[in-house]
Amino acid sequence: MLLVGRYKERKGQRELVRAMARIVARHPTARAALVGSLNSASAAYKRQLEDDVEALGLGEHVLLRSSDRPFGSMRALYGAADVVVQPSHAEGLGLSAIEAIAAGRPLVAASVSGLSEVLECCPGTVPVPPRDPEALARAVCGLLDDPAAAAKEARRAQEAARREFGAESMVDGYLAVYERLRAARAQAPAPVGAAAPAEARAGAEVSP
């Protein structure tokens, strides 16, 4: 499993660590890599996660890494993951979720603002309640139980993501917005006292 996100409590790393105790009981070879940026404000939180891992006896199953990897390296990480999880408490956009789907990886993510929109646009993803390690564990185990079905659903989500978030789709969306704004501006009445268009002024000057 892979979780990508800054080391902050709202990213849900602690929920994944707790879920791993249940996941390992069912899939003894399961491992999770938590990768994200780290600063002085989040160092204490990462130490808490390390303490949780030790207390649960998950030292061989949970890897905590702090890294600001370039995009190419992230693609390799996504490609190596059997399941990507994003159990955030809240998100602005859910970029990691979109990246995981685009990479064709099965995704389990919390149904919260910023992620719900992605999950709804991409059937084949697996939504779970936020702050619920037990539900997270059940969802992950369901994917690990049937890798072929998980891969099929991941491909379905990937196709949906290409339609919704691909470059061509985004360009078309921006062009549609610009066209609506242009049409609205053309239909809006001119402000009182506004200067007449140049063409009208020129016509008035040559009229007898």
From TrEMBL:
GO terms for molecular function: glycosyltransferase activity. Residues 2-163 form the Glycosyl transferase family domain. It holds the Pfam family Glycos_transf_1. The keyword Glycosyltransferase applies. SUPFAM superfamilies: UDP-Glycosyltransferase/glycogen phosphorylase. It comes from the Bacteria. Keywords: Glycosyltransferase, Transferase. Residues 189-208 are annotated as: Disordered. This is D-inositol 3-phosphate glycosyltransferase. The lineage of its organism: Bacteria, Bacillati, Actinomycetota, Actinomycetes, Kitasatosporales.
